[in-house]
Amino acid sequence: xxxxxxxxxxxxxxxxxxxxxxxxxxxxxxxxxxxxxxxxxxxxxxxxxxxxxxxxxxxxxxxxxxxxxxxxxxxxxxxxxxxxxxxxxxxxxxxxxxxxxxxxxxxxxxxxxxxxxxxxxxxxxxxxxxxxxxxxxxxxxxxxxxxxxxxxxxxxxxxxxxxxxxxxxxxxxxxxxxxxxxxxxxxxxxxxxxxxxxxxxxxxxxxxxxxxxxxxxxxxxxxxxxxxxxxxxxxxxxxxxxxxxxxxxxxxxxxxxxxxxxxxxxxxxxxxxxxxxxxxxxxxxxxxxxxxxxxxxxxxxxxxxxxxxxxxxxxxxxxxxxxxxxxxxxxxxxxxxxxxxxxxxxxxxxxxxxxxxxxxxxxxxxxxxxxxxxxxxxxxxxxxxxxxxxxxxxxxxxxxxxxxxxxxxxxxxxxxxxxxxxxxxxxxxxxxxxxxxxxxxxxxxxxxxxxxxxxxxxxxxxxxxxxxxxxxxxxxxxxxxxxxxxxxxxxxxxxxxxxxxxxxxxxxxxxxxxxxxxxxxxxxxxxxxxxxxxxxxxxxxxxxxxxxxxxxxxxxxxxxxxxxxxxxxxxxxxxxxxxxxxxxxxxxxxxxxxxxxxxxxxxxxxxxxxxxxxxxxxxxxxxxxxxxxxxxxxxxxxxxxxxxxxxxxxxxxxxxxxxxxxxxxxxxxxxxxxxxxxxxxxxxxxxxxxxxxxxxxxxxxxxxxxxxxxxxxxxxxxxxxxxxxxxxxxxxxxxxxxxxxxxxxxxxxxxxxxxxxxxxxxxxxxxxxxxxxxxxxxxxxxxxxxxxxxxxxxxxxxxxxxxxxxxxxxxxxxxxxxxxxxxxxxxxxxxxxxxxxxxxxxxxxxxxxxxxxxxxxxxxxxxxxxxxxxxxxxxxxxxxxxxxxxxxxxxxxxxxxxxxxxxxxxxxxxxxxxxxxxxxxxxxxxxxxxxxxxxxxxxxxxxxxxxxxxxxxxxxxxxxxxxxxxxxxxxxxxxxxxxxxxxxxxxxxxxxxxxxxxxxxxxxxxxxx
Length: 1009
Ligand SMILES: Cc1cc2nc3c(=O)[nH]c(=O)nc-3n(C[C@H](O)[C@H](O)[C@H](O)COP(=O)(O)OP(=O)(O)OC[C@H]3O[C@@H](n4cnc5c(N)ncnc54)[C@H](O)[C@@H]3O)c2cc1C
Hints:
The radius of gyration is 32 Å and the shape is globular. Helix 3 runs antiparallel to helix 4 (63-74), helix 13 (323-339) packs parallel to helix 14 and helix 24 crosses helix 25 (599-624). 45% of the residues lie in helices and 15% in strands.
């Protein structure tokens, strides 16, 4: 091993000698790009703003817009000494002569982009490729483009790949291999392909679907590549796509037609913890296949994305957190690849001289000729290293992206981030002049020393490793992680749960009153909306006598429950959370059948139910202790809370567990006793929650489960003198009825009834003229059609500024046409059935209204013939006053409205009776601030979907006709279930006051039962 290290150092130093002959211009001090880099590396905040500005610039149309954005992005930094003279001068100039500075800025950014993008189009790129040929550098060409949001766009992409292939083959037909040795392994024409560009509906939970759709698109390309003697490489993207990409590669290259074709390659990302397993599996597959294939080994381009995404979702992070771990793994995989050279051709994609030198030294040790593997580097980066490698007689291939600036923006920003990364080799070598000795150190050795505490951990890892464990007091609240369906083991668990739930179809559930199971003469059936002839279960139906019994039971249990310590009550709801977690897949599967939720949405509902339990327990612990109001000598004044009494919880079917469990847990943890009435359409899930609370140990009468018709038992209980609190989530019509009825005081009533009332919405999303359309389209489609638009937060009005209108509508309609509609038992389905026949008919009626009021721009043609499937539908040219723009439809129907400017957009957005959720897509900081301040919605979302609120993070609820202003999952929610009380005692005797205010005696200042 030591001798290998010696070899690596020797080779590394040789590369540096050659590199130092030609300075790296990207890291010099002159020019727009170089100054931008220098500024970015000096100040992280400024870097963020600079890159954001660079990102929006190509989408700005006029000089005025450019100057406005420039000022908005850097307004806060104007007085800061950190803002360099370079930028200050730019802003000053821009204010004075916008018509000059706008175009200059745009030109500069465009020039900067062209340092990393090899050509605008296939013709353009040939100039670069020819030049590289004279330098003995080969190419692999990658097509840049907008994110593919529809199958139309995916088909266009596939056609462009084919054209590019033809063009490259034609232009290079007389080119020969620069090394003239082992050239059969390395075709001249090499195309890099991204699978996300070829299919818009890839769902990590459903790799099989991706394969079914991608293979027919790939075959013509592969066939033609083979005829032309070209090479096709599958690039690797984010972790969510990794398994699909690997499976696709193995599937397609095992097909009879391509089984004996050796010019296919795939990327392995060494920053992934499971990359070694994947590589071993690929090598085994390759051996069994019996034909060579290729692997490009890289560290990976999505480190920031993966770490952020996994933290947001509470997932195990798939990437290494310390840079030397990625480096060490890169070396381990290098060895694995070279040791299997007989079956796999290696390409080492790195700019890091240590990683490169290691590959060279190890290949030598194994006696592998340098013409049998290659080094690949990115266009526009590490030019001197490429030259050095060529000089040393190695194969070098340049990764050359082709495309326009606007669609190339995300690629450009990735490169800018890479070049300015604290962890990056290029910055260390070319900007910070770190010594060769340090740059060539063995990453394993660095890790060993770091573990011994000699080296501090790298800065990038600190955030990831200092999360305080949940149990520690004062630890930040942690949500239950969502299930990561990209992992095959989770897909399998869900499939098993679906099978098991299917076997339980037809189960019967009783009422639960005072701990007793009660069967009545009538039973409700709950059906599968995807196949209404399937009965998920039957539930005993309560009438008025059962409702009376339940109220009496709850009233009777209240006396004891109100005196139970808050700690005990917290522990009860926490135990319920644990059981929910244990039964997670079972409950998700039940939701798929009972309400037609797609997998991930069903899982999200269970996670939210768990969160409500843990979050409210935490809040109750905070509020449970009496609080000294003021510290004054001689007086002890404590505020504390009493529960209100009997709570009636009336829940909807659209979040059948989360909303029910949220309201029930809030009522229980605060000391109220509860009658829970789930929706008739999701009664079996409601019964499961009863079962869970019983297992958790809820005392008899404290929680009662009633199933019955809202119009009969619901109305009866709302009016009842012994019901003190009503927690309702559902339609406006029913909500307003409850609100009114609860306002009347009945004979014998003790309390003024408190109503927590969450109703519907007519939610709007505004798309600004500078919005990132890739994101706006995907998120709007998800917000409008996810779970068939049956969320109170769902998007139903898309308000688009006129500059973008045509492009937005074109892409939106194509994206909607690509959605997968079907039975949500299949993992990748986005749009399933609506809940029942009544909803089905009502939504169809609205679609008829829409046809008379606006233009039916899109309606899916094919939906399953049985079941309550409504085709996703989009109306354009909708005027704000029309019914479809004002009334809640609660189905997969979206209205698109065109407006002249942001003033009008806000006016239209605010112009309905509702104020639940609202969204805005924009990259103008000033416009974002305006919308934040002016949009009438309980939950305002900027540059993201308007659905998917997370407990604690996005307390949820609206005002106007959307609700009474309460916030489920928020810090003050529990107050709605409590009555505040203050107890003040004068503790002075004859002027003598105790030094310290006495502690309260008991949490509720009354004796425990
Ligand atoms: C020709 C070519 C093709 C490529 N194709 C792809 C592709 O298809 N898919 C893809 O994902 N990437 C791809 N990449 C890789 C990627 O774009 C980066 O260029 C590469 O990761 C930079 O690594 P390096 O060895 O050049 O530099 P180095 O500076 O040595 O390494 C930087 C890399 O280390 C990793 N890293 C950074 N910080 C940390 C940390 N705190 N903990 C752990 N790891 C960290 C990241 O992967 C980062 O990119 C390709 C690279 C090249 C050269």
